[in-house]
Amino acid sequence: MTVSRRAAALVAAGTAPFALCLPTAAPAAAHGSLTDPVSRVAACHAEGPEAPRSAACKALVAAGGTQPLYDWNEVNIADAAGHHRRIIPDGELCSAGRDKYKGLDLPRSDWPATPMTAGDHTFRYRATAPHKGTFELYITRAGYDPAKPLAWSDLEPEPFAKVTGPRLENGSYVFSGTVPERSGRHLVYSVWQRSDSPEAFYTCSDVVFGGGNGGGNGGGGAGTAPAAPTDEQIRESAEKSTVSHDGHGGDEHGEKRQTAPLPADGTGRPAEPAGKTGADKTETGKTETGTGRTEGSGKVPNGAAASPAGDGGDSGDGGQQVHLAETGGDDSTTAVALGGAAAVMLGGAVLLVTARRRSARPRHRA
């Protein structure tokens, strides 16, 4: 083998590992929100983060600023792993227990509401970063009072619609369900549990049965029904979003969650809370951090944290579990990979040029 060929082989061998790792350095994430019926955060985003029209959306901004509306597609928990009821406290369902989105939890009877009727309905969930997973929709029980903080006990124990891997149509997941009989104002609560990580996403959609257009006056009378954000609105507001789509969203998600020691029940598994039903039964667990109104605090308000498998299994580390929703490298990983590859390729190019110059020199016989 000539000197130049040996140099070329060396360059190929040196750059191959970087070529293999570069695709995995690309970020991956799931983000989105229910748009039919439109969620609170999506509806307020559509009204305009800086100058929302409805009283409820104005109150949301007053409570938490405009950033939650720019980050409308990131109401998530990175390590939920299917145990939603245990990690999201009562009164904080709409924010998923995250301080940034606390304005979504305001108990009000004037949230803009989508007109709804019982029977078959086609639901749409806008996915700004699609991923495989399971969607579950819950509706509030008869007698629900929107002027009181939303608790898990306000929801029916079982989802009225559940689907895994629905079709993606024009940027939205589309699936059907049968809406139960209701009258007046109610709320549809959605859980999108990813199947490729412990991350899950949550939404609250206000709906009104029996007439009216849900314009936000408490009784569902005069006013304009909420609208989902348009593609143009999403594009225009993207530059102010802190959602990086790197698997953790705009906050420091994916940080270590230190859980309490698992209770001894003879199985080595955390005990299930009494009356466990509904959203906590998701089997393909996945989602974000930030419970108990503290971002990334690791608080577990409703009991011991679950394993990433969503089955309450023991982590095998003495109760110190770490749940990360990383499905790709972050920006620093990409930069390191690109920098390393560039350095190797530059060195290889220098080596090739040197080898060719040497081979081109005339040889002198003694």
- How would a crystallographer describe the biggest sheet? 6 strands, mixed
CATH class of the largest domain: Mainly Beta
Shape label: elongated
Strand content: 15-25%
Total domain count: 2
What class do helices, strands and sheet pairing give? alpha+beta
The CATH H-level homologous superfamily of the largest domain: chitin-binding protein cbp21
What's the count of strands?
A: 10
Helix tally?
7
Quaternary status: single chain
Proportion of helical residues:
10-25%
Instruction: Kindly report the average pLDDT value.
Output: 73
| Low-confidence runs | 15-29, 216-223, 246-250, 252-292, 296-300, 302-334
CATH architecture level-2 label of the largest domain: Distorted Sandwich
Termini gap: 24 Å
Describe the structure concisely for a colleague:
The protein is an alpha+beta fold. The protein is built from 7 helices and 10 strands. It has 2 domains: 3-24 and 330-360; 30-240, Coagulation Factor XIII, Chain A, domain 1 (Distorted Sandwich).
Can you tell me about this structure?
This protein is of the alpha+beta class and 366 residues long. The chain folds into two domains: 3-24 and 330-360; 30-240, Coagulation Factor XIII, Chain A, domain 1 (Distorted Sandwich), CATH 2.70.50.50. It has seven helices and ten strands. The protein has helices at 3-25, 40-47, 55-64, 67-70, 84-87, 231-237, 331-360, and strands spanning 31-36, 76-77, 114-116, 119-129, 133-139, 161-164, 167-169, 172-179, 184-194, 200-209. The strands form two sheets. Strands 2, 3, 5, 6, 9 and 10 form a six-stranded mixed β-sheet that branches. A four-stranded antiparallel β-sheet has the order 1-4-8-7. Strand 7 and strand 8 (172-179) form a beta hairpin. Helix 1 (3-25) runs antiparallel to helix 7 (331-360). 43% of the residues are buried. Residues 15-29, 216-223, 246-250, 252-292, 296-300 and 302-334 have low confidence and may be disordered. Residues 287-309 have a biased composition (Low complexity).
